[in-house]
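Progress report, Aim 2. The chain analyzed during this reporting quarter is listed below.
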Amino acid sequence: MRIDILTLFPEMFQGPFTESIIKRSVAKNLVNIVLHDIRDYSTGKHHRVDDYPFGGGAGMVMMIEPIARCIDALRLERTYDEIIYTSPDGKLLDQKLANQMSGFENIIILCGHYKGIDERIREHYISMEISIGDYVLTGGELAACVITDAIVRLIPGVLNDETSALSDSFQDDLISPPVYTRPYDFNGLLVPDILRSGNEKEINRWRHEKSVERTRKRRPGLLGNY
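Predicted structure tokens for the chain:
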């Protein structure tokens, strides 16, 4: 998979993309993440990428020209499954959407900033808008990190144990059950005996029951889907 990220602040991705699972997936050539500084596509003397909104009002708006030039240049090189804009009013990112996008070959993620981007980009270039929650961030870079992480970990070969992702929360519209590791007894706090029984069938039954119980208590709205 190739992920092209259009941003005004490429340095913000150095931490999230140079550690842990994403770093390993890049090293294994399972994903190619390319950062593009939108300022590089500005034709102005000072590489300006924002301007005041028509009609007045507070804040600045990301200009159409640099974004369009960048997307046009990329589309000359390859076909993209989706051109995504990180927006608070976009489709809410969930596990089903992450599963779907993990099968894509090429995507673009455009990080918004300021009061947003020129609406003509949204109307004529963007094919999907994604929100990571009902709140506003200072920019789309953090959202792009979340989207990328949610997708990349699902690509075959990224996780050492590929079955691990199948038991994640939300994969079956349930919250994951509680998990334990050694020691069995920590200051009198014990691991449930069923998990040490070796009875795989009963262990799976226990885990399912705990998932339903935890979902009913913490996220009852999910049970409608389940």
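Residues 30 and 152 are 9 Å apart (CA to CA). The mean pLDDT is 92. These observations will guide the mutagenesis work planned for the next reporting period.
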